Amino acid sequence: MRIVIFNAKPYDHATFNAANTALDTPHDLSFLRPHLDAHTAVLAQGAEAVCAFVNDTLDVATLRALHGVGVRLILMRCAGFNNVDLAAATDLGLSIGRVPAYSPHAVAEHTVGLLLTLNRRLHRAYNRVREGNFELDGLMGFDLHGKVVGVVGTGRIGICAIRILAGFGCEVLAFDPFPSDAARAAGARYAPLPEVLGQSDVVTLHCPLTPDTHHLIGTAALAQMRRGALLINTSRGGLVDTRAVIVALKSSQLGGLAIDVYEEEGDLFFENLSDQVLQDDVFARLLTFPNVVITGHQAFFTREALDAIAQTTLANADAFQQGGAPLHPVTLDMVA
Ligand code: NAI
After folding, report:
1. Helix intervals (H) in the chain
2. Per-residue model confidence as pLDDT tens digits over 148-192
3. Distances (CA, A) of 194 to 197, 199, 264
4. Which end of the chain has fewer CB atoms surrounding its CB within 10 Å, N or C?
5. pLDDT, tens digit, 9 for 90 and up, residues 234-282
6. Under 8 Å between Cβ of 157 and 206
7. Residue 154 CA to ligand 1 centre (angstroms)
C-alpha cells in the first residue's frame, strides 16, 4: 500500500523504515515534512493511506481534500484522535486507525518525572547549580510518601501511574466513569470527582479529551481543589482551562502546574521556534511562573514507544489491506 507520512521527523523515518523492512510485504512509504491540513492534503495524490500525528489538522476540509485525491485510510500514529472530525470522516467513508497503546509506561513515567521536578524544584536547582548558586532557599518540596494523589482517568496510563505512585507510598484516589478492578488492584480507591479534587495534594489527568472533558479543570474545579495542590497534565491540553489556571496560580489556590500538553500547542510544539517572538501571550504568562514546568508533548517519546507506534501503524495498514478495516479502528461511537 502507498502510504504518505505527513509531518515526518528524522526519528519517524528511522522507526517506520525499520518496522517496514521487517514486514514480509513492505509498504511503499513516502515521508513528507509538512503538517497535514487542507492545503497540504493534495500531496497525498496517488496514495491509499496517509499517516498523521496529534498536531495535524484533520478537519472537514482536510478530509474532503484527502478523499478527493483517492485516500481511503487515515493512520493516526498516536492514541488520541480529538483532532479528527469523525463525523466528516464517517460521511466520506474514510477509515481511521490509531495506536491505542504503545507504551503507557512512557507517559506514566514522564508524568511522575514532572511531578518530582515540580515538587522538588529540580528545574530551578539545575539552573542554580550551573550558575554556581548552591542556596536551597525556595527549593523546598514535600514528601510524596503519605500524600493523597488524585488520578483522573484510570485507563492504561492511569493504571501505570497508580502503580508508580503506590510504590512511593502515596494514597491514590481515582475518578473514572468506568471504574476498573485493575486500578483497584494497583492500589487506587475510587471516589466522585469533587471528592478526588477536594482531598488530593496532587491531581494528575489521564482521561481523553472529548466534548465532555473539555476544560474539565476550569474555575469551578480549581476552587474545589485543596489549596496549594499541584496539577499535572500529560493527557491533552484542552482538559485544562489555561486562563483559569493562571488566575489560580496567581492567588496560590493552585500550588504548581506541570504540563506536557497545552490547549494551543498546535502552533508551538514539535518545532524549533527559538529564533521567533512568542505570539501566544497565555503561554508566555505561564512561562513566567517559578512553579510551572512545561515539556513539549514528549511524554510518549521513548525508544520502545516509537518502535511500537511504527509497528502498530503498519499493522493497521496491513489489516485494512487484507480485511477492509484497520486493526484498531476509530469510530464515531467512541466519542458519543
Ligand atoms: P485509555 O483509553 O486506556 O484510558 C482513558 C480512561 O479515561 C478510560 O478509563 C476512560 O473511562 C476514562 N475517562 C473517560 N472520560 C472520563 C472522565 N470524564 N473523567 C475521568 N476519566 C474518564 O487511554 P490511555 O492510553 O490511558 O491514555 C489517556 C490519555 O493520555 C489519552 O487520551 C491521550 O490523550 C493521552 N496521551 C498523552 C500522551 C503524551 O505524549 N503526552 C501519549 C499518549 C496518550
Report:
1. 10-21, 60-68, 86-92, 104-120, 122-130, 156-167, 181-186, 193-199, 219-224, 242-250, 281-287, 303-323
2. 999 999 999 999 999 999 999 999 999 999 999 999 999 999 999
3. 5, 9, 27
4. C
5. 999 999 999 999 999 999 999 999 999 999 998 899 989 999 999 999 9
6. yes
7. 7
**SS3 assignment, position 123:** helix
239 ligand 1 Cβ < 6 A = no
- Report the C-alpha gap between 309 and 181 in whole angstroms: 27
> Does the beta carbon of 213 lie inside 6 Å of ligand 1?
yes
150 close to ligand 1 (CB < 6 Angstrom): no
Q: What is the pLDDT of residues 193-226, one digit of tens each?
A: 999 999 999 999 999 999 999 999 999 999 999 9
Q: By three-state DSSP, how is residue 47 classified? A: coil
Indicate the pTM of the whole model: 0.91
Mutation test residue for ligand 1: of 235, 293, 312, the one with most atoms within 8 Å of CB = 235
Residue 263 Cβ inside 6 Å of ligand 1? The answer reads no
Is 80 exceeded by the pLDDT of residue 336? no
